[in-house]
Design a protein that fits this description.
The chain is mostly beta strands and about 120 residues long. Helix content is about 5%, strand content about 45%. It is built from one helix and eight strands, in the order βββαβββββ.
């Protein structure tokens, strides 16, 4: 019998600023119009960067095999040791987002909803 330690995960999705609230009973949905360019997770000995999957890649295959991925406004990091992590997300036309999150192995983590602000161009 294999003695394996539980691992944690972190998942989330993006919405435009002001679109975080959903109607009671509705499932939260990512804004697929937001084009994520990269999602980076750093903390302890972990440093991983995700680039969104191409259209022909199947996000369900990554999810079922517990491989990190980003697709259609969402991201998933699997197999994380417990600890505190910095998450940085870059999306075309939006300010870079950075936040601190805690992962607890073996404990279900809620989905992170990230509200992105439009980049203000031309102000100096």
């Amino acid at each position: 019998m294999e003695n394996s330690k539980p691992t944690g995960f972190l998942r989330g999705y993006v919405v435009k600023h002001g679109q975080r609230d959903i109607q009671l009973g509705e499932s939260p949905q990512p804004d697929i119009e937001i084009k994520i360019q990269s999602v980076t997770l750093s903390g302890g000995k972990v440093h991983r960067t995700l680039i969104p999957l191409q259209e022909e890649d199947k996000d369900s295959e990554h999810y079922l095999s517990a491989k990190d991925f980003s697709s259609k406004g969402t991201f998933f990091f699997f197999g994380l040791p417990g600890g505190t992590y910095e998450l940085t997300l870059v999306a075309k036309g939006y300010d870079t987002y950075s936040g601190i999150y805690t992962v607890v192995p073996g404990q279900y983590q809620n989905t992170i909803i990230i509200e992105l602000e439009k980049k203000i161009v031309g102000s100096s």
